[in-house]
Automatic annotation (TrEMBL):
Listed InterPro entries: PC4_C (IPR003173), ssDNA-bd_transcriptional_reg (IPR009044)
Organism expressing this protein natively: Candidatus Brocadia sinica JPN1
Protein name stated in the entry: Transcriptional coactivator p15
Domain Transcriptional coactivator p15 (PC4) C-terminal, residue spans: 15-64
Pfam families, per the entry: PC4
Length: 79
């Protein structure tokens, strides 16, 4: 179970004023992995967007497998 605000695992800076946050959140009594884009508003507050995905915890291993496959098949770090 998570608390009302969820559990934040970490974040990735996309660009200036935009980041991706990975967290576990609860909705209607069920926990979900949430990977969502946030932006910095004019009040200098981070706000979530509709851009992202929400998965049940049982699908996390599948997602990790797909990301590893993408990495092995040629997704490279941008410089």
């Amino acid at each position: 179970m998570t608390n009302e605000q969820g559990v934040k695992f970490g974040e990735i800076q996309k660009k200036e004023g935009e980041k991706v946050v990975v967290s576990m959140k609860e909705y209607k009594g069920f926990d979900y992995l949430d990977i969502r884009t946030y932006f910095l508003n004019e009040k200098n507050e981070w706000c979530f967007t509709k851009k992202g995905i929400t998965l049940p915890p049982g699908k996390v291993d599948i997602l990790i497998g797909l990301l590893n496959k993408a990495k092995q098949m040629g997704v490279k770090e941008c410089k």
